[in-house]
Amino acid sequence: PLHSNNNPYASFGATLARDEEQNLWSTPHDVTHTEADDDRVLYNMIVVRNQLDKDSEEWQKLNYDIYTLRQTRKEVRSRWKHILEDLGFQKEADSLLSVTKLSIISDSQNMSKARDILLKLSEETNIFPTSWELSERYLFVVDRLIALDAADEFFRMASTVYPKRAGGERADEGQAPRRV
């Protein structure tokens, strides 16, 4: 035949699409993504959507909800990454934000402080959207920042870049995040 199917890259696009569908966070091929509660919610939404007829209203609504949740997660991760980069962690930002089932808390004594800082970030800044449920993923990130003695500086910068306004409005609504 004129056209051979022996091309090892022939299914590359299909593989990327499949990986993107299963990539619930930001790490392709991470089989641990359904371990965290927020990942499990998204995974369950995808499973339900995939059982529905694509032409149905329920499928379209669920597909929109999945897209919205993914975009929100990407936005939150981007906010954290910008602050980490502004703190001087340009090369380490992605690894500091990378959390899998194999991630561990560096010091169990830091757990309480990490929870307090994460809660404070949630209550006193807009680094998380108002509808956001705190993710265990960011507890690991805060723990890493404590180990690097950068957690308090991270909080100060988050307060500056994403300040809370009266009525819960985001200070950066409609704008790109300010770089400090």
Automatic annotation (TrEMBL):
Coiled coil: none annotated. The lineage of its organism: Eukaryota, Metazoa, Chordata, Craniata, Vertebrata. Pfam families: MREG. GO terms for cellular component: melanosome. This is MREG protein. The gene is Mreg. GO terms for biological process: melanocyte differentiation; melanosome transport. It comes from Sapayoa aenigma (broad-billed sapayoa).
